[in-house]
Amino acid sequence: MSTAIHTENLTRRFGNFLAVDHLSFEVQTGQIFGYLGANGSGKTTTIRMLLGLLHPSEGSARVLGYEVITQAEQVRARSGYMSQKFALYNELTIRENLAFYAGVYGVNDAKRLNEVMGSLDIESHQNQRVQDLSAGWRQRLALAAAIIHRPGLLFLDEPTSGVDPVARRAFWDLIYALSADGITIMVTTHYMDEAEYCSMVGIMRAGRLLAIDEPDNLKHKLPGSIWQIFAEPLLTALEIIKKLPGIIRTNLASDHLRLIVSPDLRIEQIQQRLIEAGICIQKLQPGEPSMEDVFMAYQ
Amino acid sequence: MPDKLIEADDLSKAFGQTQAVVGVSLQVASGEIYGLVGPDGAGKTTLLRLLCGALHVDSGTVSLAGFDIAHHVEQAREQIGYLAQRFSLYEELTVMENLKFFAEVRGLPAKDWLPRSQEILTFVGLADFTGRRAGQLSGGMKQKLGLALALVNRPRILLLDEPTTGVDPLTRQDFWELIIKLLRDEGPAILVSTPYMDEADRCTRVGFLRTGKLIREGTPSELRSLILGRVVELAGQPQSLLARLASSDEDVENVQRFGSRLHLRIRAGQSEVVIQRLNEKIIGNGGKLDSLRMIEPQLEDVFIVFAEGVS
Predict the structure, then answer these.
(1) Confidence of residue A1 (pLDDT cuts 50, 70, 90)
(2) Which of B117, B125, B197, B228 could bond to B299 as cystine, CB 3.0-4.6 Å?
(3) A7: β partners
(4) B262 CB-near residues (< 8 Å, 6+ apart)
(5) How confident is the model at residue B163 (pLDDT cuts 50, 70, 90)?
(6) pLDDT at position B2 over 70
(7) Residue in B33, B37, B40 to test binding to A, most A beta-carbons within 10 Å
(8) How confident is the model over B39-84, as pLDDT tens digits?
């Protein structure tokens, strides 16, 4: 397997602010790499550096074998990029928008337009103007524009933000299809079920890459156990539990609390504390770690 | 009924040829969170904007805490806190200045909003950041400031349009904790639209909107019970084989990925038959099974049914 992305101590400062802090990682060709982190943790800054749009303050990166600093043009000619803010021309049709992007990338092959529209299943709407399209169709068009020049690597920056559950799944079907064609994908998302669809996941916090591994390994390495507590009154129980040492994270779900508990704290201790406070515990059960738990544990 | 703070009756709104909202009626009482879900473009934002009077209805009536917005729009609006999907903060103003500006625009005298500001900044966890410029806040803190702005007038009605879209999981969890505490402490009526089904699950009632129509309404457990016994979880390796075998089963209506697992929706009454049949097929084809069992439907399973248009 060859390496699609390789970074070494990649760093970016804005004034005194360290946006990306000595990032070293590798993404292999053909992988779907999920890049997770809170807003402002450095995800977009990383992607902009990898595309050669922003100079690193320190360190280096190679993308598809090219140095992002000195060979930015080669990198961009071989990479695609799509975000929620992708510029589409509202008054142009799907086909006209794609033709425009083909021109930008110097693709003068009419067959490629049809091929891309075919593979993303947007041919039927090709003569509709963007302003008349639903969010889901716009998103497909944005993806089509990002791959018109047959990139080997695709950066997707929160491509499914605000998209409904069915449209999100349909979009991931497209990502899988592109991946099956050999395109390497780096994707950011706030949907933790989507993190499960990635072959590898990295978790960022405050500019630093805290973990990088396959989703299953990240779940196994979770530094604590998961407990679900059904109790009344739930909010009071939450307030008590939050004060206990050894509670890594709490989540108030619809009818229960989900806790990530460090090995130092036994569940009996939590139980006892709740009973002392007059909380009625209806059910207490261990849970299986999810990617959301993993994400939360690292924040 | 005085406790029905939001009452919408037979609302319709068209934009040109497009019927954005069609005959929607709903009511939200004090202390309730009503979750509005539906596919993109179903009319959720339009409905919220009709309810807060930002858009005029073509027909139908909206009453907020007893004030009909067609006749008493000022009084009706005083009852509302509204957090838009892409709310704006003045980035160069501090947290406190943003609150002051917002309160003054809403015509609140300082004797009202000043003490209230302290209270809500403490509530959302920004009390130590009153002098920080909004532009210097993290994404999660901006979100909390947005909520604080919507609460400055002590609204009895809170309208939230996809408040957690584009927000990370930690911020999202914090935000919902605040909403649920607010409900306990101040008992407003809350209407929230969301693309996240785990959020819809935290609501008292959920309404499903499709092509402008409210096609189903109920508590989360009522909605889940619509497909009780018809959802089977399947996990194992290789996933492509599992998905293919499941999809080709005659009693499987739908196969969807849920994280690392598949959820199969089974024709009513056939779950046990399907489980046995798939078990044999998967093993027979050299697959490895980690899980094949009937599970409690999730709201996301129900969403998929409604979005497909299956009744």
Answers:
(1) low
(2) B197
(3) A25, A61
(4) B233, B234, B235, B239, B242, B243, B246, B255, B256
(5) very high
(6) no
(7) B40
(8) 988 999 999 999 999 999 999 999 999 999 999 999 999 999 999 8
Report which of A3, A47, A9 is spatially closest to residue A26, judged by C-alpha positions.
A3
pLDDT of residue B309: 74
Mean pLDDT of B288-302: 96
3-state secondary structure of A159: coil
B1-10, B123-132, B188-197, B231-240: range with lowest mean pLDDT = B1-10
Angle separating helix axes B169-186 and B110-124, nearest 10 degrees: 130
Smallest Cα–Cα separation from A237: which of A273, A265, A285? A273
Relative orientation angle of helices A110-119 and A135-147, to the nearest 10 degrees: 130
What is the separation of C-alpha B17 from the centre of its chain, rounded to a whole number of angstroms? 27
* A165, closest residue in chain B (CA to CA): B195
Angle between helices A135-147 and A94-104 (to 10 degrees): 30
Is the model's pLDDT at B90 over the cut of 70?
Answer: yes
Region of residue B233 (phi > 0: left; psi between -120 and 50: alpha; otherwise: beta): beta
Smallest CA–CA distance from B256 into chain A, residue: A169
Find the CB nearest B167 among A169, A190, A292: A190
What residues contact B271, with CB distance under 8 A and at least 6 apart? B229, B230, B232, B294
Q: Do B303 and A290 touch (CB under 8 A)?
A: no
Residue B311 has what pLDDT? Answer: 43
What local confidence, expressed as pLDDT, does residue B1 receive?
45
pLDDT over threshold 50, residue B18: yes
Q: Over 90: is that where the pLDDT of B162 sits?
A: yes
Task: Using CB atoms, pick whichever of A161, A164, A299 lies closest to residue B170.
Answer: A299
State whether residue B300 is helix, strand or coil. helix
Are B138 and A164 in contact (CB < 8 Å)?
no
Q: pLDDT value at position A192? A: 95
Residue B169 to residue A296, Cβ atoms within 8 A: yes
- Single-letter residue type at A36: L
Binding-site residues on chain A for chain B (CB distance < 8 A): 37-41, 84, 134-136, 158, 161-167, 169, 172, 190, 192-193, 196-197, 215-216, 235, 238, 251-254, 290-292, 295-296, 299
Query: Distance (Å, rounded) from C-alpha A183 to C-alpha A29?
Result: 7
Residue B98 has pLDDT above 60, yes or no: yes
Residue of B211, B233, B257 for testing the chain A interface, max A β-carbons within 10 Å: B257
Beta carbons within 10 angstroms of residue A235's beta carbon: 16
- On whether the CB atoms of residues A105 and A148 are closer than 8 A, the answer is yes
Prediction pTM value = 0.92
* Residues 6 or more apart in contact with residue A173 via CB below 8 angstroms: none
